[in-house]
Amino acid sequence: MAWKEEINSHGVHGESSLDSGHARLHELGYKQELKRDLSVLSNFAFSFSIISVLTGITTLYNTGLRYGGPLAMTYGWFVAGGFTMMVGLSMAEICSSYPTSGGLYYWSARLSGAKWAPFASWMTGWFNIVGQWAVTTSVDFSLAQLIQVIILLSTGGKNGGGYLASKYVVILFHGGILLIHAIINSFSIRWLSFFGQLAAAWNVLGVFVLMILIPCVATEKASAKFVFTHFNTENDAGIHSQVYIFVLGLLMSQYTLTGYDASAHMTEETKNADINGPKGIISAIGISIIAGWGYLLGITFAVTNIPYLLNRDNDAGGYAIAEVFYLAFKRRYGSGVGGIICLGVVAIAIFFCGMSSVTSNSRMAYAFSRDGAMPFSSFWHKVNQQDVPRNAVWLSAFISFCMALTSLGSLVAFQAMVSIATIGLYIAYALPIFFRITLARKSFIPGPFNLGRYGTLVGWVAVIWVAIITVLFSLPVAYPISRDTLNYTPVAVGGLLLLTVSSWFLSARHWFRGPITNINT
């Protein structure tokens, strides 16, 4: 691979008036094709909106309640959050040195050395982009499911003859949501910046309002002892080991704290990206940890009967947080309308999360196709008159819709595929970090943001944590193990690994050379 000669610093070569991110992109051998118009706030907003604690916690609160309950969620959140910050710090350091839309796969190429660069970037890129598509699929499908529950409660609830939309109606909701997201993402970056900042504000205000409102409205409240010390070991999964239960409960937290690579994928549209990209990653994780814990506490103080909330025969059909909201208002005011409105607040946050996810997907697809890694790369790499990779936007929406079609056959198959959203994406996060602390330990040239002498230590903590959760989240989640209870995560992730490796040896190794510069140097 013909790399442009590295310089010993990330200076601007005397062009003091040139944006530092633009200058660094030029040094790396790429033209400025996207419009560089995002501030540090906008960059942060995209990652914060994709992490979206309202989305992740609401979607997987059932998992948290079932496996460990209040104690596992309250303390497990900080366990997952602390290690996620280690991953984020390592990614931020690399992002500062290589602020390109390619993000992770580009980093792997530069850090693994010329010999391994094509294979490293191929593996990282496909895990990253498929993981991102899985995130968009799971986010927008969870919104479709929440709409299903909102309609159910609005028409009387499960015990009052309410309307429960079929799986075919839910998939139509999912398709409609993706269509709207694709249209919005076809707008100019100025509009996306506006929507991104609106999304971040909505998430912050939504968390603040709900964490105070729900426990205040609830007539029956949990004690502080229950919230901070109750460990739920009662589950229908046949699992009794407390350590095992706690580990499974971590999935809610770790699933929520993903997607912050968006700040890296938006760097070619961010001003002074070598500084503001890393800021976006770290601030999105940090603020999400604080806001998420507040939301968790607020909701859990309104939880008094875990088995009832998880029961499929309650009014929300077993959707725990929806039942918490609905009951809080119904018991105090005789009507659950207020709870349904609160669910609407969450639904809008999930909508923004999916919107930002499509934005990040499209930038990754744009960069990956720019380097010729995808079929029909020249088509996906095109940008329109507003400097937006519109073809990549619609590709991302279409693939996310196709991935959700598996839900029509089996929810087990769908959940297995969506598991790539957590494990697949974190493997993509860990690969460039691993190369930075091994093959590039002595040759890595840090950017304006760096961890100094602690970079290697933080990197090893990050890589080891990803290795641990990859194993833990592949463990069985119910016993006895059957076709319906088997955890298909290792099957899905292993399938992706097999496809990626086999495609490399059968074809890509003959023509893919990793990231290629598009400036005549």
What structural keywords apply?
single chain; 521 residues; mainly alpha; 67% helix; globular; disordered N terminus
Strand-helix topology:
Layout: H1 20-27, H2 40-51, H3 53-66, H4 69-97, H5 104-111, H6 113-154, H7 167-184, H8 189-217, H9 224-229, H10 242-256, H11 262-265, H12 273-300, H13 306-310, H14 320-333, H15 337-370, H16 377-380, H17 390-404, H18 406-409, H19 411-418, H20 423-437, H21 455-472, H22 489-506
Helix pairs in contact: 2-8, 2-12, 2-15, 3-4, 3-10, 4-10, 4-12, 4-20, 4-21, 5-6, 5-20, 6-7, 6-15, 6-17, 6-20, 6-22, 7-15, 7-17, 8-12, 8-15, 14-15, 15-17, 20-21
Describe the structure.
With 521 residues, this protein is mainly α. 67% of the residues lie in helices and 0% in strands. Helix 2 runs parallel beside helix 12 and helix 3 (53-66) packs antiparallel against helix 4. The chain has helices spanning 20-27, 40-51, 53-66, 69-97, 104-111, 113-154, 167-184, 189-217, 224-229, 242-256, 262-265, 273-300, 306-310, 320-333, 337-370, 377-380, 390-404, 406-409, 411-418, 423-437, 455-472, 489-506.
Q: What would you call the structural class?
A: mainly alpha
Give helix % range.
55-70%
Based on CA inertia axes, which overall geometry fits?
globular
Specify Rg, calculated over alpha carbons: 23 Å
In N-to-C order, the SSE pattern is HHHHHHHHHHHHHHHHHHHHHH
> Cα distance, first to last residue?
14 Å
Relative strand content = under 5%
Largest sheet: number of strands, sense, barrel closure: none
Count of DSSP strands: 0
Let me know the average pLDDT: 88
Low-pLDDT stretches are 1-17
Number of helices: 22
